[in-house]
Amino acid sequence: MTDAAASPALDFIAKTVTDHAVVLFMKGVPDQPRCGFSAVSVQILDHLGVEFIGVDVLQDDDLRQGIKTFTDWPTIPQLYVKGEFIGGSDIVREMFQSGELKTLFAEQGLIAA
């Protein structure tokens, strides 16, 4: 991927995480995840009652590579809350199990405390 090809994807990513409170860059869409890790992340967000948008990185090769460049994080899914990269599936799962994820969403006013 060239820098020229990356730029529109990176611009899209930056705008998306700025414009939406909770964004999950994932394989597939929330109603039909296309990998187990994305499915787990969706289930956790749904369980917590968090409104989020899912962005299917499988629809665009530049987007799929761009999201990895944007965060310098090699795996998908990737969760963002109010523009901040939270982590991938393992981190999201660990934060959920410890209660930290629920606390984060409550502190951000995204779910009831």
How would you sum up this structure, described in words?
The protein has a single domain (3-106), classed as Glutaredoxin. The model is unreliable at 1-5 (pLDDT under 50). Strand 5 and strand 6 form a beta hairpin. It is globular and about 40 Å long. It has 113 residues and is of the alpha+beta class. The protein has helices spanning 3-19, 36-48, 61-71, 89-98, 100-107, and strands spanning 22-26, 28-29, 32-33, 53-56, 78-81, 84-87. A four-stranded mixed β-sheet has the order 4-1-5-6. 52% of the residues lie in helices and 19% in strands. The relative contact order is 0.19. The chain has five helices and six strands.
Number of helices: 5
Biggest sheet strand line-up: 4-1-5-6
What is the number of beta strands? Answer: 6
Major beta sheet summary: 4 strands, mixed
Structural domain count: 1
The CATH class assignment is: Alpha Beta
InterPro entries: Glutaredoxin (IPR002109), GRX_PICOT-like (IPR033658), Monothiol_GRX (IPR014434), Monothiol_GRX-rel (IPR004480), Thioredoxin-like_sf (IPR036249)
Keywords: 2Fe-2S, Iron, Iron-sulfur, Metal-binding, Redox-active center
Family: Belongs to the glutaredoxin family. Monothiol subfamily.
Binding site for [2Fe-2S] cluster: 35
